[in-house]
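Help needed: design a sequence for this.
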């Protein structure tokens, strides 16, 4: 019995020491920050799984406490020290001027080629020269001209969306979930633009949509926590980000698309064509080439459909904005690709959603924020200077957090940031380029690693919103935006909002 109790005591003590031995990391470097506690670090609500909070809202709380007092602070995720950047100007420098010092995304450390053969080569994950090569290979697919070339497919998806909603209304089912619409229309455009294949996304059962929604491996929470606290487990028993079944299904789909194209000698100047050329030129394996195809899918599907779904919800909740957008769309002479970029209120609505908003639950909690925290890793030592002139050496390997949501939610930059207010982006001070240059509007990141698919995403979102307001009036029937959860990899909120659609005469 004594041995048993001694064992427990010894185990407890070792665990305590393991969890806390590094807690003076920032103190030793003269960097201030909230006091870490054993196990929870500086994120008690996230670590203890408070149902009314999440990592992003807790990051915003810390941000607000230290903002304007320091340019950066030291925080701890469980036991791991990270540097949180508070100064918008420093954020821009990290993205742009100091790029070579912060060139890698931290997620690259937890994705492994054996477990995730399609995900590992993704530009978002790739590092060093491999990243550069991937980005250079794929960049021609995402120019404005290419996106313009993809527009007829997006228009076709929009027309199918109209028929889909009309059919539902006719059959007496006018209550439709916004997530349903956003996922189907995005999947349809993506599949056609990517492969020249019909996703049949508006059918009752679409293989493409169903597989897309099951793309991410659901790792049990306790495993995620354990693996974060003991990073060595990542190396011994690496997690899979994308499920095995999805990998196999996706490679099969890619092979089918290539086969169809080669067999029928189809010539199209699209993404698949670019990938097939690359495969030949670089003598790539099918899996490596499918990994290139996967970029569009993985980085594009959930992000675009999430932002689109939340934009539809906001227009449904804010009837005056919906009407204003409708008036603008109806007054425009035609609906071509170039016309989409001549509608200032549409721009403002899209930016208003990219900014994200907090939803107050039980007085304080914010959910449904912008989905991305940006985690970067220091790739070359650098000295950063705090507001009081103190210089701190940030060593290679240090992880940093760019708290996008916290900046997007700060009242110094956005008056009443919780309010959906597209008008804030229509006046001089709300020019998105000015805000981006100031470091306080980064929905797509910035610098050499800026999102590759932003033009496609914006075009797709704009086209769908125009189509909806042009053809339907829609309002909220049931709102049930639950706090964000980690669905797969990203912090997307569970959008279960139901809308009622009426056909416009
Ligand atoms: C509204 C939708 C989207 C949002 C909000 C979004 C946002 C972002 C953000 C914040 C980053 C990180 C930038 C950085 O590290 O500095 C990123 C990277 C990336 N995005 Fe997007 N994205 C969206 C849609 C898309 C689409 C549709 C595609 C592809 C078709 C795409 C492809 C990529 C790629 C390849 C990267 C990695 C770039 C690199 O590290 O070099 N994204 N995106």
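Sure. Designed sequence:
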């Amino acid at each position: 019995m004594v041995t048993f109790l001694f064992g427990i005591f010894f185990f407890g003590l070792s665990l305590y020491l393991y969890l806390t031995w590094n807690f003076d990391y920032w103190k030793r470097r003269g960097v201030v920050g909230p006091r870490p506690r054993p196990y929870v670090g500086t994120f008690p609500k996230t670590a203890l799984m408070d149902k009314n909070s999440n990592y992003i809202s807790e990051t915003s709380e810390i941000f607000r406490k230290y903002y304007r007092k320091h340019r950066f602070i030291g925080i701890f995720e469980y036991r791991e020290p990270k540097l949180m950047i508070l100064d918008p100007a420093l954020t821009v420098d990290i993205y742009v001027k100091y790029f070579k010092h912060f060139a890698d995304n931290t997620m690259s450390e937890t994705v492994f080629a054996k477990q995730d053969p399609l995900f590992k080569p993704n530009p978002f994950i790739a590092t060093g020269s491999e990243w550069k090569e991937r980005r250079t290979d794929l960049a021609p697919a995402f120019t404005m001209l290419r996106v313009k070339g993809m527009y007829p497919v997006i228009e076709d998806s929009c027309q199918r969306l109209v028929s889909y909603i009309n059919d539902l209304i006719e059959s007496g089912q006018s209550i439709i979930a916004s997530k349903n619409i956003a996922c189907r229309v995005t999947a349809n455009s993506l599949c056609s633009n990517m492969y020249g294949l019909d996703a049949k996304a508006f059918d009752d059962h679409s293989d493409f949509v169903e597989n897309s929604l099951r793309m991410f491996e659901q790792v049990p929470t306790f495993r995620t926590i354990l693996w974060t606290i003991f990073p060595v487990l990542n190396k011994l028993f690496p997690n899979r980000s994308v499920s095995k079944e999805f990998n196999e299904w996706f490679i099969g789909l890619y092979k089918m698309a290539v086969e169809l194209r080669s067999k029928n000698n189809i010539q199209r100047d699209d993404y698949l064509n670019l990938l097939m050329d690359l495969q030949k030129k670089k003598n790539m394996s099918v899996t490596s080439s499918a990994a290139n195809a996967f970029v569009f899918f993985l980085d594009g599907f959930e992000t675009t459909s999430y932002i689109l779904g939340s934009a539809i919800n906001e227009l449904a909740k804010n009837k005056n904005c919906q009407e204003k957008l409708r008036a603008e769309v109806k007054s425009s002479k035609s609906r071509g690709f170039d016309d989409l970029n001549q509608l200032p209120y549409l721009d403002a609505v899209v930016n208003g959603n990219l900014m994200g908003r907090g939803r107050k639950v039980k007085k304080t909690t914010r959910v449904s924020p912008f989905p991305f925290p940006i985690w970067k890793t220091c790739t070359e030592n650098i000295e950063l200077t705090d507001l009081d002139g103190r210089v701190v050496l940030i060593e290679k390997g240090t992880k940093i957090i760019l708290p996008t949501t916290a900046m997007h939610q700060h009242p110094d930059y956005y008056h009443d940031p919780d309010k959906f207010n597209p008008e804030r982006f229509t006046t001089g001070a709300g020019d998105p380029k000015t805000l981006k240059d100031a470091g306080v509007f980064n929905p797509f990141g910035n610098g050499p690693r800026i999102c590759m698919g932003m033009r496609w995403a914006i075009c797709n979102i704009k086209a769908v919103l125009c189509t909806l307001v042009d053809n339907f009036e829609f309002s909220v029937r049931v709102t049930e935006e639950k706090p964000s959860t980690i669905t797969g990899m990203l912090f997307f909120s569970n959008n279960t909002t139901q809308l009622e659609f009426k056909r416009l005469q």
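Residues 286-317 form the longest helix (32 residues).
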